[in-house]
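Box 3.1. Reading complex inputs
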Amino acid sequence: MTPGGGSGPMKDCEYSQISTHSSSSPMESPHKKKKSVPKRKWEVFPGRNKFFCNGRIMMARQTGVFYLTLVLILVTSGLFFAFDCPYLSEKITPAIPAIGGILFFFVMGTLLRTSFSDPGVLPRATPDEAADLERQIGNTEDIANGCSSGGYRPPPRTKEVIINGQTVKLKYCFTCKIFRPPRASHCSLCDNCVERFDHHCPWVGNCVGKRNYRFFYMFILSLSFLTVFIFAFVITHVILRSQQTGFLNALKDSPASVLEAVVCFFSVWSIVGLSGFHTYLISSNQTTNEDIKGSWSNKRGKENYNPYSYGNIFTNCCAALCGPLSPSLIDRRGFIQPDTPQLAGPSNGITMYGATQSQSNMAAATPLLQSEPSITSEELPLPGKTSISGPCASLTLGQPTPPSSMPNLTSDSGLTDIIPLKEEHEGHQFLTPEEAPSPPGMLPSGSPIAHSRTMHVLSLASQDSLHEDSVRGLVKLSSV
Amino acid sequence: MKAAPSAVGTSGTAGQGGTVHSLQELRRSASLATKVFVQRDYSDGTTCQFQTKFPPELESRIERQLFEETVKTLNGFYAEAEKIGGSSYLEGCLACATAYFIFLCMETHYEKVLKKISKYIQDQNEKIYAPRGLLLTDPLERGMRVIEISIYEDRCSSGSSSSGSSSSSSGGGGAGGR
């Protein structure tokens, strides 16, 4: 239809319409915008972590104490090299600053490695996995109790495994929706399950787990040496000077030495003590967590022993420090594939639109072939979100799970680097609705799908945008 | 549409459904029916091993022996990656001596084995699983917790519960791009 006389407003309307479509205005659908800027996985990581350098560096949320550690080490070492080393290298030997330099380099390297690396975070379960687990647990409980788990969440679930003859209980993590592997624990500060969880160390600003335990140990060991080294040579420096000019004059001549001596004196006790403690832990192949809880102590029973220990100290040490280093499981820098549909479908029996790795044709017309899995998984997003706060409340009221799975904390007076967190509860206490996994329509939150090396052949590139939109629409419908 | 049993594919073995699929075909013609998860086997400790128990859902799709062989091979790979022996000690000591800076330029033994595993899984998918309408997912993408096996219902096969007409109409609908 021609605009005829072409009234002004009409013309303006047309013009503005064209301009709207050409630019990406807020009127555009959000996922069209997302498609043009692929996000990396760390940007939607569900845990409470901070990322730097585009996902290469990963730390806990509170890093204030880490900066304090850095400042203390840098300032003390700096003062040592600037004020004490010249005198000492002249009077005694230049090897002193050389050795000091090597120690300092080692300390900084291991500290940064400990703080910046992934401690062994377990990615959260994909919706399919979670649904499958829920179904299995539901089935076993129905069989056991003879009642249906309708509206409320049943008590915390455990699975028992026998490891090297010792019975170990695996607990179900409500936040991550997985059964935690043995020795894993959920850190409530970082809101992640961490493999071989040792403790959350505020001094390094990160959890200490399987992947960075050896760095942590090397850090405290080398820091003990550095502290003792600096302390010893500062004292030597002051003594040598006071032999020449008297004690008070010596102090006046090098005031930095006083500061260094004070810092080192107070650090030595805690750092050396901590190194000793961790040496014991490594030689017996235990984690701080297990030691605090007394999981493998003889007090629990005569037959209680550590199933993970290799039997002799040497092997335990070698395994902990020189064993293979497993890679990070969370793929921080991978790109989120925009299409990661799940098995969940609307309850009227429509099959899912495509798979994780391959997209099928428009599935709306296809009747659901197996209704069972899709119905349970479709129900999951709803109760999963609303009922989490429910069980959280009940769980925090002295349920068996929280104390034993308490990640770190608790006050151990000998360990100065563990924060006695009084508000310690299971991690999911913090799982408020806004922190709940993002709507299935967004899907990628935390799930390390995508970037499948095996699935390059089945790349999703061939799907048309209309199909994707309708797929997304269906997912949103089903989850609402 | 693509219902010809001798359809293009890199492998020629017929699946138990009676139709042959290549990986590309799976993408075009099949729809995901369900996923089966093979869980970890912790009886040996924290080393990465998967259960070799045969999932009942795969009963009709693949021979038990093939599946068990796949899982056993994967277990073998993981055991090799996590093996504590002479070479891993050497690597660990060297890394420690360089304050772990060497990890910035060197690939660890574990990573090398993971690449092998990835290739193996791709290989298995192409040769054995895709022709049967199944797909293995690398456990690394699932946090080393499970081996996820996606089961595809074949739209083209007449043996499945989806009717022939619905599959052709859905095929047409997909091509039309509603």
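In summary: The first strand of chain A starts at residue 49 and ends at 52.
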